Amino acid sequence: MKTTISALFLCLVATSAVNAESVNRSDLYAACIGYQNIKWKESEKGTLNYLTALQLKQLAPYNFEATKQRCDCTVTAAFKDLSDETIQAYSKALNEGGDGIILKNVKAAAEFKKADMLDKGIACSEKSLASSGFEKKLMELSK
């Protein structure tokens, strides 16, 4: 009887471990980078369409640096302020092409809003664009 209970317990623990889909920093960081890369491609065809291909190529390394800084900032804020469940929903939303998708998960959306993650994301973006040299290079290329 004791062996059967132990076996059932071990089976339950193993099943729980398999079903738990925790997100680590690198998963969220990769999702953020992927999402920002999609946004960069959209901006090349949208708000930055006045730049030549050569100018976009010159701006790309600054965008890359800004993206790394923004995602590091955003991921740090998420792991500081959000529960594992909300981080998982956030990562899923980014992987599905937009952080607005997090609103589909009511509980995660409430926590996301309470933690001011949208405002933190905007602050991370502004800080990274300035410190990476992106804004300065864009101004230079736009002359």
Question: How would you describe what is shown here?
Answer:
With 143 residues, the protein is mostly helical. 79% of the residues lie in helices and 0% in strands. It is built from seven helices and no strands. The protein has helices at 2-19, 25-45, 53-81, 84-95, 106-114, 117-131, 134-142. α2 (25-45) runs parallel beside α4 and α3 (53-81) packs antiparallel against α7 (134-142). It is elongated. The N and C termini lie far apart (81 Å). The model is unreliable at 1-20 (pLDDT under 50).
Cα distance, first to last residue? 81 Å
Give me the Rg, rounded.
20 Å
Q: With helices defined by DSSP (H or I, 4 residues minimum), what is the helix count?
A: 7
Counted beta strands: 0
Q: Per the principal axes of the C-alpha atoms, what is the gross shape?
A: elongated
SSE order in H/E notation?
HHHHHHH
Mean pLDDT rating: 85
Secondary-structure-derived class: mainly alpha
Major sheet summary line: none
Low-confidence parts, pLDDT < 50 over ≥5 residues? Answer: 1-20
- Beta-strand level of the residues, as a percent range? under 5%
Please give the share of residues in helix.
over 70%
